[in-house]
Amino acid sequence: MRTERNLTRLDRLFARLDREPERPVHLDVPRMSRHRVVLFSATLAFYLAIVVAVLATSWLVRFDWQVMFFRPYQQWPEIHGFLDYWVVLGQRGPTAVMVAAWLGWRSWRQHTLRPLLMFGTALLLLNATVGAAKLGMGRLGPHYATVIGSNEMGQGGDIFPSGHTANAVVTWGILAYLASTPVTRRYLSALSAVVSLSVGLTTVYLGTHWLSDVFLGWAAGLLILLALPWFEPLVARVEPFALGLWHRLRARPPVAVGPAPALVPQRSTPGAAPASGKGSGEQPPVREPVAAGRTRTPAYLAPGPHTARCERTPVTPAGPRRPPHADRVRGASARPVTGA
């Protein structure tokens, strides 16, 4: 007779949230396939084409100015408040904290540091490539443009490519890259594409970026995601070292640091000979530690049991405390009485 109960959908969900007993043997690690190499080359060509088109002040720059003069935030002001919050999905700090928390749970569940290490690698590549491009080209944004129709390059700005857009592509795309199954990877890829596209267009709506900045931000983030398989061997070599260091730190016994025991000198025994000088073989008296809860009887009390003041029998003296005075009458006036 079978006594096993059928697991409900909620039971299966909680089972997936628990930690696996051991590290999975076969982890789906993306490889640098020929298809991925072709996509990387096409994205790199698109990236260079955008840069050349902006440097040459081509039709793309004129289209940037047309979109800026259109002022989308004035055309649809009713969605301005919502998009002010939506653009936070492209900011580095909040998104990195959320994704790192999710990937940290994934690392704990599967007994591997690969999700966190790959996320750190992606952020390092993002800071290096996008930051260098921003500082190298120095383009000013729409709010700080000086000459109508110019590309505003080399003016000391940091707007090209769009950091919000590139960060949205990398931060949300890394979830699809590290997905466990192909079905989950497809769903997360679609979700990250929607988020990154909407964040990029939101920056154009708010007037903080040119449209060409967003195009270059999409390309910059996609290049980083496509290049991640080249860094998988490096992460595979770093992971055992990081795990071994973590285990050594956990196995190290803690050093207990507490207050030193209080030392009190011993009372000398009456009749004992005093300690002699350097020539004598007698040892000086050794101080012994006294525990915190131990109490000593004061030296001025006599040996033996002592009763509390409240337990002692009251002693009443015989007679009045003051000596009698013949010339003083209680209650009488202090004035002397004279005869008639």
Rg calculated over all Cα atoms? 42 Å
What is the number of beta strands?
2
Instruction: State the order of secondary-structure elements, H for helix, E for strand.
Output: HHHHHHHHHHHEE
Helix/strand/pairing class, anyone? mainly alpha
Mean pLDDT: 78
Number of helices: 11
Largest beta-sheet details: 2 strands, antiparallel
Low-pLDDT parts are 276-280, 336-340
Question: Distance between the terminal alpha carbons, to the nearest Å?
Answer: 130 Å
For this structure, the quaternary state is single chain
Share of helical residues = 40-55%
* Order of neighbouring strands in the sheet with most strands: 1-2
Looking at the structure, what is the overall shape? elongated
* Percent of residues in beta strands: under 5%
Question: How would you characterize this protein structure?
Answer:
Strands 1-2 form a two-stranded antiparallel ribbon. Helix content is 51%, strand content 1%. 21% of the residues are buried. It has helices spanning 9-17, 34-55, 59-70, 72-75, 80-86, 92-110, 114-137, 163-177, 182-206, 211-227, 232-251, and strands at residues 263-264, 288-289. The chain is elongated and about 65 Å long. Helix 9 (182-206) packs antiparallel against helix 10 (211-227).
